[in-house]
Amino acid sequence: MVLLLVVLFAFTIGGSTVANWNTLAVTSGHGPMGVLAAVAIMVSLFMGIEAPVELGDEIRDARHTIPKAIVISILLTAIVYGAVASTTLALIGPEDLGRSQAPLADASARIWGHFAGAVIAGVAVISLLKSMNATAMVFSRMIFAMSRGGVLPVYLSHLHPRYGTPYRATVVAALLSLSGLLLPGSLVFLLLAVNVPTLLKYMACCASAIRASRMDPTGADGLLSPSSVLVAGVSAIIMASAMVVFSVWEDWRPVALVGAWLIGGAVWYRLFVRDVRMNYPG
């Protein structure tokens, strides 16, 4: 992570000296719908900020650590990606950026030559592996939690006798992840196929926060009243819903795919789920 931040910092500083900042004008001719359609794709930049919540049982002093981690993650992500995106756009322009299959590599080649493009690509691969490892761990914990809650078969909630990890849920998560290889290779499709369900997950978290605040007004340590949580949660749900709608302008297929998953999940819940446990069994 530190290596990635150092490389991106060098890219931003180096690119700022040769970039054409006039390309950042808001009157670029693409209209507001182009911006709105891109919002759903940009959600992927913030993926992972919710990971501490999903790993709460494995974090020391989670009540105080998780809120700080989420705030720091959002601020750091916004600053870093805002600077990198602006520099990339100013270096190669919107038209070339839209056609590029490796935007950062192409942009860095404008600064330091083609060798730099290869270095950026290598760092991106390392960063991708880091993100995949974190995502796989979170995915397995979600399956594990759903199993212990009674939504998925209890078979998946077993822990490894030596390491204490949900190894069965991890295997299932890996197999489900590999199924992504069967999806189309379009970058926009793949981003939306990940981002749309992520938005739905965020919406579900907001709805859960609203319900939890009404059941336990002290759940936020008195920082937010139930009415404040309601306003913030409903606002977030509305914005996330709008982003899902805007994504249809880019590619309708991911939305249809997620819709099919929702129907399948509803059928599973109706036929096989009998007792949902909100707390872990003793």
From TrEMBL:
A GO CC term attached to the entry: plasma membrane
Transmembrane segments: 29-49, 70-91, 111-129, 136-157, 169-194, 229-249, 255-273
Membrane topology label: Multi-pass membrane protein
Superkingdom classification of source: Bacteria
Keyword set, alphabetical order: Cell membrane, Membrane, Transmembrane, Transmembrane helix
One MF term in the entry's GO annotations: transmembrane transporter activity
InterPro entries reported in the protein's UniProt record: AA/rel_permease1, APC_superfamily
Signal peptide annotation: none
Localization annotation: Cell membrane
Main subcellular location of this protein, as a coarse class: membrane
Protein name (Swiss-Prot/TrEMBL): Amino acid permease/ SLC12A domain-containing protein
Organism: Gluconobacter sphaericus NBRC 12467
Organism lineage string: Bacteria, Pseudomonadati, Pseudomonadota, Alphaproteobacteria, Acetobacterales
